[in-house]
Amino acid sequence: MALLVLALSLLFIVLGGLIASHRPENTYGWLWLSFGLGLSLQLLSGADAAYAFVEQGSLVAPARSPHLLNPGGPLALTLAPFVLLLFPTGRLPSRTWRFVTWIAAVSGRCSYP
Predict the structure, then answer these.
(1) Angle formed at CA 65 by CA 62 and CA 70, multiple of 5 degrees
(2) Is the dihedral of CA 99, 101, 105, 111 positive or negative?
(3) Which of 19, 39, 65, 107 is deepest in the core (most CB within 10 A)?
(4) Residue 80: CB partners within 8 Å, gap ≥ 6?
(5) CA-to-CA separations, 37 to 41, 58, 96, 103, in angstroms, rounded
(6) CA-CA distance, 93 to 63, in Å (whole number)?
(7) How big is the chain by its Cα radius of gyration, in Å?
(8) What is the pLDDT of residue 62?
(9) Cα 44 to Cα 21: distance, rounded to the nearest angstrom
């Protein structure tokens, strides 16, 4: 399962990088890039914690690492509705969708500890 998440997060990073490099003004590419980076950070956090548990004393600050890397998962969950809402132009389809974006942003903010 972790390999699938890793492959998908790398795919999202490459997709976002391609879109953002060809059209830097389009927020859609930057969202995909941030979404992939959030998933990668979450996956790295789990692997880092497992490594610190197995190899005692191998990491400089094993207690700090989860605090720095764990926000990647909630970041990806927060950006997921925006990836769907801003497709394909990087803008909302109409002004009436602003309410949905506010709900997504507030619920995403509430997911952080």
Answers:
(1) 140
(2) positive
(3) 39
(4) 35
(5) 6, 25, 30, 23
(6) 44
(7) 16
(8) 65
(9) 25
Domain ranges of the chain: 2-110
Nearest-5° Cα angle at 76, 62 to 24: 115
| Of residues 51 and 14, more confidently modeled | 14
How many other C-beta atoms are found inside a 10 Å radius of the C-beta of residue 74? 17
Instruction: Give the whole-angstrom CA distance, residue 113 versus residue 107.
Output: 12
The single-letter code of the amino acid at 64 is R
Output the DSSP codes for 83-97.
HHHTTTTSS-SSGGG
Write the pLDDT tens digit of every residue in 35-60.
999 888 888 877 777 776 777 776 66
